Amino acid sequence: MFQNFRLSMAWLHTWFGLVLGFVLMVVFFFGALSVFDREIDRWAIAASRFEPTPMPSYDRILRPVFESMQPNAQARDDMRSEVNGPLPERFDIAQRWGAYTTHRDPVLGLFAGYEVPNAKKPETLIWAMRTIDPRSGESLPDDHLKIGSQFFYPLHYSLTLNWMGLGYWIVGFAALVMLAALVSGVVMHRKILREMFTFRPQKATQRSVLDLHNLTGVVALPFHFFFAFTGLVIFAGIYFPITHTQLEPLHELHERMEAEETGLPHDRAGVAAPMASVDAMVSEAQRRWAAKGMAGDVGFLSVTHVGDANSFVSVYRAGTDRIALTGEGIHFKASTGELLREDPPRTAVDSLNTFLTGLHLQHFRHWLLRWLYVLGGLAGCVCIATGFIFFVEKRKKQHARQGVQGARVVDALAVTTVTGMLAAAAGMLIANRLLPEAMPLGWPGRGDMERYGFWAIWALALVHAFVRSGPVARGLPNPAWREQCWAIAALAVAAVALNWLTTGDHLLKTVGEGYWPVAGVDLFLLTSAALAVVVARKLGRRASNPAPTRTAQVSHA
Fold first, then answer.
1. CA distance 515 to 53
2. H-helix or E-strand spanning residue 300
3. Best exposed site among 4, 247, 299, 469 by fewest CB in 10 Å?
């Protein structure tokens, strides 16, 4: 089929990269934004614009909130198909309460899981969520969307396609294909070291975009390979769900045996019992961490079998000073405060797993490394985008002569995926600033409206890209690239201006006060606007003065 192995790798690289590149573009871009998801949250929810605080007092702040929590209407609607008969008006048996925070979270996320009477599966729980101000315990509105951590972040690993876990499988397959594309890309480039330092922007479009594709692909190659691989490791339990399928009986047996070995009860005793001071348990856990030379704050706190004689409290350390995703859990009997267990040192295999997971999820406190993550993710976006452009530039004149629409379709999809995605993200931030704090009765929640705005703008970009793609069928550039770049610039500047007008937090104020979470988002938007203007002007000049037609001497298939 191919003359040599290198040509077969070139074919693999080209077509695997094209077919899954549209998914990988989303993964890379929103993965890059997710590095600063908590900062985007603060920009999106003005009420959360205060400095992060450690885990607050459980006895004074958290317990009253937990006792008042109940599943919302959406959770109840989702649960109706999982039970035999009607749902109760109130859920009283709390299986688990939990609170999670990081060094970048000013607000605190709480969750509560309740047993469901008459559930088809006995282990089924219904969940209630709450976000509170940890200084007072006051709840934030349930319909306010944390755009960074609740939308951009899950979008990068699940595409928010939750039906049957479809999004996880699409992204997982794309990551697997990406590994193949990276390996094939290395094989097909015989002068890979030279390509690290070669970029000729004044050459013809086909040559310059290929230079940029090679440059960004080679320079960030370790980053791209590592994150594709660790992403697959993190979600291995979804892709190989043997514990809850083929090995489910062994899984249940293992859980019960583990409960016996650790002293942490697997089931409720069915006997009510009061709860001792959790604050005292937290203090004891911190004392034990300090005694081991690893003093730190609490990152995760949970109560299991709430209100039962078998209830226990688990306190986990926030791992901001290390890469490995470790918790150093310490567990206490809830009714007495008696120490039940300290998690033992991890095995070598488990330590490697937590290190790889921690390096991917970057919960550590290291700002320079975070920015390197962002640059690596954006380099991946550039690599994929230039791959799309090269594919079209190489084929569009030939397709025009043959009357084939392939290059036109690919170009329109590339415009949608690259510039359309950026416009949708900026448009979502504008919707966040324009929507009222409380939506009118009968309307979807505020967060839902922001999501609808994102998808509507992206759909509009898709229509625009196809409508304006006619010139590609004649071997000419698609003006949609330039027009959507101007749209990105306008939307980004508008988002910054609206943040100022609706909150009073303009750049001079936020930079002057050193409040970098909000200032950083504004600066990122303005930088994006400036780059979009530069690209739009450059595309405009190229459209006015097309380069002489000649075939670039390239090694791609």
1. 15
2. strand 298-304
3. 4
Which two tokens mark 332? Answer: 């206490």
Dig out the tokens for 453 from the structure: 């705005």
By CB atoms closer than 10 A (0-12, 13-18, 19+), residue 386 is buried
Question: With left for phi above 0 and alpha for psi between -120 and 50, is residue 305 left, alpha or beta?
Answer: left
- Assign 3-class secondary structure to 329-349: CEEEECCCCCEEEECCCCCHH
Give Cβ neighbours of residue 60 (< 8 Å, ≥ 6 apart). Answer: 279
Nearest to 159 by CA among 177, 173, 178: 173
Per-chain mean pLDDT for the chain: 88
Residues 6+ apart with CB under 8 A from 492: 426, 525, 526, 528, 529, 532
Alpha helices in 80-191 (DSSP H): 153-158, 166-188
Per-residue model confidence as pLDDT tens digits over 54-81: 999 999 999 999 999 999 988 999 898 8
Beta carbons within 10 angstroms of residue 232's beta carbon: 17
Answer for the pair 426, 487: CB distance below 8 angstroms, yes or no: no
* DSSP assignment string, 107-151: SEEEEEEEE-TTBSSTT-EEEEEEEE-TTT-PBPPTT---IIIII
pLDDT of residue 401: 87
Rounded Cα distance, 68 and 110, in Å: 12
Q: How do beta strands 330-333 and 108-115 pair?
A: unpaired
Closest by CA to 288, choosing from 241, 343, 239, 238, is 343
Q: Which two tokens stand for residue 266?
A: 């697997």
| Phi/psi of residue 195, nearest 5 degrees | -70, -15
Which stretches within 80-199 are classed as H helix?
A: 153-158, 166-188, 192-195
Structural contact between residues 408 and 469, judged by C-beta atoms closer than 8 angstroms: yes
How far apart (Å, rounded) are the C-alpha atoms in residues 361 and 267?
32
Q: What's the burial of 193, exposed, middle or buried (CB within 10 Å: 0-12/13-18/19+)?
A: exposed
> 92: which 2 tokens?
């009283």
Distance CA 388, CA 380 (A): 13
The amino acid that residue 388 corresponds to is: F
Mark the ranges of the chain whose per-residue pLDDT is less than 50.
549-557
Which residue's entry shows tokens 């750049």?
507
Contact of 303 with 311, CB cutoff 8 Å: yes
Question: Is residue 428 a contact partner of residue 33, using CB atoms and an 8 Å limit?
Answer: no
The 3-class secondary structure across 384-444, one letter per residue, is HHHHHHHHHHHHHHHHHHHCCCHHHHHHHHHHHHHHHHHHHHHHHHHHHHHCCCCCCCCCC
Q: From the centroid of its chain, how far is CA 535?
A: 27
Half-sphere exposure for 301 (CA within 13 Å, toward CB): 25
pLDDT digits (tens, 9 = 90+) for 178-235: 888 888 777 776 666 666 666 676 677 777 888 788 788 888 888 889 899 989 888 8
Residues 6+ away with beta carbon under 8 Å from 372: none
